[in-house]
Amino acid sequence: MMRVFKVAVLAAALIGSLSIALVYGASYYYTSQHGQGCASCHEMAAFTSAVHSSAHRTTTCMDCHDASLRTKLRHIRVHIIRRAPDVIHLRNVDVLALTTRCRNCHQHEYAAWHAGPHSATYSEIFTNAAHNAKRRLADDCLRCHGMHFDGAIRDLVQPMNATGPWHLVPASLANEPTMPCMACHRMHREGSTQVKPAQRISATASTSPPTLAFFDRREQLHFAAGQLALPALFDGSRTVKISPDQRQALCYQCHAPRQPDTGTLAVANHWGPQIGTGDDRTPIGVHEGISCFACHNGHSENAAASCKTCHPQMSHCGIDVEKMDTTFANAKSANNIHRVRCIDCHQSGVPKGKPSRPSAGISAHPLRKGI
Hints:
By secondary structure, the chain is mostly helical. It has helices at residues 2-32, 36-39, 45-51, 61-64, 69-80, 92-105, 107-115, 122-126, 129-134, 153-156, 248-251, 265-268, 342-345, and strands at 157-158, 167-168, 213-216, 221-224, 234-235, 238-239. It has 3 domains: 13-85, no CATH class; 111-183, no CATH class; 228-371, no CATH class.
């Protein structure tokens, strides 16, 4: 009996050793082949092909993706039982793991994102009592917050009412971000390799980086910013001028206006979506027509130091523009940066003086004329 037991233990140890050797041997093979080993699985071929024309073409698959023993054994099991899908999608846990790996190379961008509002956690978004009491939780919340979550809103938060108290069903997500890097970036992309332009591109003609893309929860696909449409918005009956900066199309996927409510003048006159409805933040007034990215950093969203890029820090009336209350968050802000007009400051009339001649090589700002 003891002999049989020893044989069984030795056999188990041998099988375990061989499994570990095969798994880590495969890791070396995949790393050394720079993704070609991964491409041998048909469902991975398109991804490995696309990444070879991306900014991450010099990295290996395992620099970004989970390479734990448990993950590899799961992949082996899926292929042995022949249940590998034709099209694969990352699970929420995979996307969250990728976010921490992005930090290894993109430390500055990660720090800026982590310090800004787009790093809001599941707990901050979905158990917010003030918000949940005013607006009912719905699956559409996941379109922008938790777009990679594997399930419906009722699988994420309970109870589904306006009284609470609310709690996350998967408690492990409490401190995880609802808008990770993969919400706005795609790592695998098709097309030619991006190269440095022959001449400098001005701020008014900024191109949309190929990796800038919105992850659509319903389609389970990334759509490049260049494929997304900029909306037509109205201020009453007036068409609002919007910057042609295509990067903004990504912002409008979440910071979008609502269709006019039934019974309003906008509906009766067919004016279309109105600015300031929903979560729209399109600027009017003196800043109408400028890009979101003219003021907002793409990762931290901090616009505190952006005023002095166009305005002198000390104005002719002795006001420090960076100390003015220009916040959009405060409805009582006297100089709401998205709505401020010339007349808000120049209450005795807008000066008619000539605009100063711009420096060589710098285009005059179209909105500064006559201010």
